[in-house]
Amino acid sequence: MKITGGCHCGHIRYTADIDPDKVFICHCTDCQTLSGSAFRTNVHCPEAAFTLSAAAPKIYVKTAESGRQREQAFCPDCGTPIYATSVGGDARTLGLRVGTIDQRDSLVPQRQFWSRSTQSWVVNISDIPGIETQ
After folding, report:
1. Helix or strand run (H / E) with residue 93
2. pTM value?
């Protein structure tokens, strides 16, 4: 599936070719902290299928619980997270942040990871009253 996406301020824009069956939710505490939310929704994308069409992101390297290091790419102006990937190496896979994808409404998660860190209220989120706008 061809997608387009970018950051909130428009400084970063990209195109990519993804498999919509590779969309997943991560509940790890690193994703909670780095997203400022209860979980993060991602889709895997081969680095070779990802093209920046505007400015390059800033990179922050975090160390996971396993000790592995991961590059966190984000907009240097507005801070929008764009993707994460391994540090160095060939044929890397990017974890694109689904919230930055223009076609995000058609990307339904197929799996959830790090469920041991799931916030208890996420399971019953449909029970929380909703208001269409603020």
Report:
1. strand 93-97
2. 0.88
